[in-house]
Structure prediction request, 425 residues.
Amino acid sequence: MHHFEYQGSELWCEQVPLARIAEQVGTPCYIYSYATLERHFRVFDSALNTGGTKRHIVCYSVKANSNLAVLKALVSWGAGVDTVSRGEIFRALKVGADPKKIVFSGVGKRDDEIEYAIDKGILAFNVESHAELEAIERVAARMNKKAPVSLRINPDVDAETHPYISTGLKKNKFGIPVAWARDEFLAALKLPHLEVIGLDCHIGSQLTKTAPFRDAILRLGELTRSLVKDGVKLRYLDIGGGLGIPYNQEDPPSPAEYGLAIQDAMKAFAGLDLTLICEPGRVIVGNAGVLLTKTLYLKQSEIKNFVIVDAAMNDLIRPAFYDSYHAIWPVEKRGGAAYVADVVGPICETGDFLARDRSLAQKPVQGDLLALMSAGAYGFTMSSNYNTRPRVAEVMVKGAEFAVVRKREELEDLIRGETIPSFLG
Ligand SMILES: *Cc1c(COP(=O)(O)O)cnc(C)c1O
Prediction:
C-alpha cells in the first residue's frame, strides 16, 4: 500500500506529479511519500498493540533510511530508533528523538561510540559478544556511570532470506550463541557498571514468513525461563526488525498477521512484565520511496536492448548487491507494446544494472522518466560517490507540497576534505 499512483497517464506521488519534481529538482532523485510513511508506521504500531505485552516501543531502524525529514516524521508519531553507529544516534538526537527510546546494535562498537551513547543516556546497548560486554564495562567505569545492556542472542533460526541479509544463523557474525547466552547473562550481572535490562534478537531482513520470527521468540522464551530461575530480572524483549515487503511476487505477512504471530509467540513469556521492542526498517520506508531517473540513451547489442538511465549502482546498489528486484514504472504512460531490456546506469562496471531482462510496460524514448519503485529502504543510505558521481537529491512529498530534504551534491562537495600534501609540490 503506497501513495504513488497514476492519475490518467501520469504517475503522481500523493498530489504531486513526479514530472513536476523532475522539472524542479532534476534527476536522479529519491522521492518519499509522507502519507505512506505515516500509514506504514501507524499500521505497524497498532498491530503490536494487540501483542501479549502491556507496552511496546517501535524503534525504527535508522540504517534503512536516515534522512532527517524521515526521522523527524517518525519521531513525531512516537517512534524510537534502532541505531548501529554514533552517527545514527547523532541523527536521531538532531530530530529530537527521546534517548530513552534509542537502542544501539552492531558487532563492532568502538569505545568512542560507547562513550557517546552512555553520555546521551540511551535506553540500551544490544550487546553482541563477551568482548563487547567488557568494553562497555570499561568505558562505563571510566565515566563512573552504569550502562544499560540487552544481550543480543543468535537463536540459530533460518530467516529464509537472501544470504547477505540473514543474521540469525550460527555461521553469521551477529549475536551471542543461544547455547552460551545463560553464561553471558550471569557474567554480565557480575560487572558493576552494567545494568542488564533485557534480551534481543534480529534474525534477518526481508522475511516473507512469520514462522522464523515465532521460532526465534520461542527460543528466547526458553532462555528467559531459565534466566528467571537464576534470579535474572528482565524488563525488555527486543525482537528486532526484518518484516519483508512486496518488491515483485513476494507475499509477505501483513503487519496485522505479523502482530498476531508475535502475540502468539509471546505466550512463552507469560507472567513476565516485559516491554516489547521492535526494530522495523524496510517495512516502514521501503514502499514509501521511489528513485526517479531519466532515460539518457537506448542502445542495442547483438543480443540485448539496453536502456541507459542517469541513475546507477552508486545511487541504488540493491540490484547489484543482492540481485534484488525493483519494479520500473513509466512516469508517463503512452501505451504500446512491452519492451524487454536491461536498464543500466553510466558506471564503468558490468554490475551496474538496475534491472536485467526486464519487460518494461512500453519502449522508453530519450528523456523519458522512469520510477524505480520500493526504493525507500536501503536506497539512499547505501549510495556512494563511486565514479565521482554526486549523491542525488532527496525529496519529501506531503499532500500537494514537496520539499528537497537533501540537496543534490555539487562538484565542490565531491572533493570536500581532500588535500594535496606539500610534498607533492
Ligand atoms: C538492519 C536492522 C534492522 C532492520 O531490518 P529491516 O529488515 O529493515 O526491518 C533491525 N535491527 C537490526 C539490529 C538491524 O541491523
